[in-house]
Known about the structure:
The complex is a heterodimer. Chain A has helices at residues 15-26, 52-56, 109-122, 168-172, 196-202, 244-250, 254-262, 265-271, 318-338, 343-346, 348-355, 358-364, 368-373, 376-394, 401-414, 416-425, 428-449, and strands at residues 5-11, 31-35, 49-51, 74-82, 87-93, 104-106, 126-129, 133-139, 142-148, 153-161, 184-193, 210-217, 225-231, 235-243, 275-285, 296-297, 300-302. By secondary structure, chain A is of the alpha/beta class. Chain A folds into three domains: 6-69 and 108-179 and 290-364, FAD/NAD(P)-binding domain (3-Layer(bba) Sandwich); 184-285, D-Amino Acid Oxidase, Chain A, domain 2 (2-Layer Sandwich), CATH 3.30.9.90; 368-450, no CATH class. The longest helix of chain A has 22 residues, at 428-449. Helix content of chain B is 19%, strand content 18%. Chain B has a single domain (27-105), classed as Alpha-Beta Plaits (2-Layer Sandwich). The longest helix of chain B is centred in the middle third of the chain and has 7 residues, at 42-48. Chain B contains four helices and six strands; from the N terminus they run αββααββαββ. In chain B, the strands form three sheets. Chain B has a two-stranded antiparallel ribbon. Chain B has a two-stranded antiparallel ribbon with strand order 2-5. At the A-B interface, helix 3, strand 11, helix 6, helix 7 and strand 15 of A face helix 1, helix 4 and strand 6 of B. The site of one iron/sulfur cluster has 13 residues of chain B, from helix 2.
Amino acid sequence: MTEEKFDAIVVGAGPAGTSxxxxxxxxxxxxxxxxxxDSPGAKNVQGAVMYTKMLDEIVPGFWKDPQxxxxxxxxxxxxxxxxxxxxxxxxxxxxxxxxxxxxxxxxIRATFDRWYAKKAEEAGVQLFTxxxxxxxxxxxxxxVGIKTSEGDEIYADVVVAADGVNSLLGQQLGLLDExxxxxxALGVKEVLSLPREKIEDRFNLEQGEGTxxxxxxxxTRGMLGYSFLYTNKExxxxxVGAKLSHFQKTGIRPPxxxxxxxxxxxxxxxxxxxxPLEYSAHLIPEGGYNSMPKLFAxxxxxxxxxxxxxxxxxxxxxxxxxxxxxLAGETVIEAKKKGDFSAKTLSAYQTKLRDSFVIPxxxxxxxxxxxxxxxxxxxxxxxxxMAQSLYDYFQVDGRPKRDVQKAILQRLTKNPxxxxxxxxxxxxKNEFSLVKMGVKLRLLLWKLTHGGSL
Amino acid sequence: xxxxxxxxxxxxDALPKVNVDEKLGxxxxxxxxxxxxxxxxxxxxxxxxxxxPCTTVxxxxxxxxxxxxxxxxxxxxxxxxxxxCRMLCPxxxxxxxxxxxxxxxxxxxx
Lengths: 454, 110
Ligand SMILES: Cc1cc2nc3c(=O)[nH]c(=O)nc-3n(C[C@H](O)[C@H](O)[C@H](O)COP(=O)(O)OP(=O)(O)OC[C@H]3O[C@@H](n4cnc5c(N)ncnc54)[C@H](O)[C@@H]3O)c2cc1C
Ligand code: SF4
Ligand code: SF4
């Protein structure tokens, strides 16, 4: 494998890398895909919810493949908020999601990654597993290849760094610095086996369909994060993640938190009798738009987790990685036609990302985490307060309803955390936009009632 | 609600103390004799680092403080390659690379 020259080298056979490699191979490019795991997926951890649309754009109608590595199409998505002994939930379920083109599926990443890399190989990609890339090779300031930990050198016109959240290659090439503990979350997870019928009975599912639950509140012990519970064919994926800096400050041990969450009265009944099959942990980039590195330079593009492309508040990462990988691939195909792999030509990648959902979504959520972190007291106390209020509301205790409602309101408005939140949100800017919204609404109503077209 | 110096709630319910070795027992590894994690300097752990966050945050409990020997023991063969330790050591005292190609943890599910 020494001293061979390819059109492109892709580092990392995750969703980003395999998408890039497959896209380029389909256009006839000579592509090598390098993966440090013994097989693709051996190092990877995800919830895992995989979105249909972005994969369908690369492997059309993939779910019709008899070998398609999907567990259950998700027909219901729920959000829970837990206090110590209670739960508040919202959710949405639709029959539409049981039909093509679906919305998303649960997957097992080890199986999924192997299948996906196989698709790339079928398209002509040369896959090498068990190969750790140790550094990039530069010539005259341009990236021209890579060196493996065994000392082999491989050359190409372009390198696509899709090596995930710990992008040692991106760091070594000076595209990014080490993330801080504030820019990543640490997730710990377990896959637990449970018979098919038990899953379907317990979660009120018809044959084959699946559900997801994202769980906030008591289960993260005041840290910013959440748990997830996803149904696979014959197992449950359950995990919990929180900001790495919060684990650092609280000294909470991740596996202890995992067991604490599993033992919560609302969760334990769903996991009853389920046997742990495998424990895992992985980082999740959560710096988002504000932490994104430079996405291209002479002879190199960077995609997926390596470039912080995760929309954490919507648990979307694999789909951003796939689209970014595909767009990186398309950029290289165009560069190859021009015979020019300079940063200027490769900058088309950034434009493509802007025109897709990737950069707009990351941009629109860029301040969310900082905003929530300003109100960590609400994150800590909110769930208990909410549970108390709902308990009082639904508990028939002989008091007149008006007294109960008054008491609930009083407790809420007297809480220092709630007061601080209201105070900080009652800025002039916010009031102005409230007034603006009111005026717009009035106009809309007026038009509607007067039969005018909108 | 009572809070600690960082504003995190101090809950009266203690967290369970999980036996991490039992968790790691569910995993498959391809062991490498070559250590992929090295400490730059034990004296920093001993003299400067009071909280020793690596000993709590590492999800595989690779780092354990040995009080008798006044030494940080690094069981690199337990590492599940999350990368967290590189970012959490306040003194940048940990050098954590990847195991050589093909070695290390082998997730069957992930
Ligand atoms: C607990 C958890 C739950 C999640 N849940 C969801 C979810 O439900 N839905 C969702 O969409 N996203 C989810 N995500 C995020 C999602 O997993 C990632 O965004 C996605 O995997 C990113 O894909 P990627 O290809 O960029 O990186 P990765 O999947 O990390 O792939 C990188 C690849 O590069 C390889 N590699 C790294 N370094 C080298 C090297 N030097 N040489 C050779 N190979 C190398 C790795 O082994 C790996 O195969 C979750 C993440 C976690 C941790
Ligand atoms: S966090 Fe760093 S300095 Fe502190 S004990 Fe661990 S390795 Fe040593
Ligand atoms: S990479 Fe993760 S599992 Fe390995 S030693 Fe560091 S913190 Fe522990």
